[in-house]
Amino acid sequence: MGTRDESDEAYVVDLCNRVLGEPALTQHKFDWLLGDPGVGGRRAKLPVDAYWPGHQLVLEYRELQHDQPMPHFDKPGRLTVSGVHRGEQRARYDARRDTEIPAHGLRLVVIRPADLDADGRGRLRRSREADLAALRAVLARDSDEDRVTDTFRTWLLARGWTPVTPTNRWTDLEAVRGNDRLICEAKGRTSEKGIDADTAYGQLLRRMTSEDPGTRYALIVPTSSVKAVERVPERIRRLLRIDVYEVTDENEVRRQTA
Question: Do residue 9 and residue 84 come from a single domain?
Answer without folding.
Answer: yes
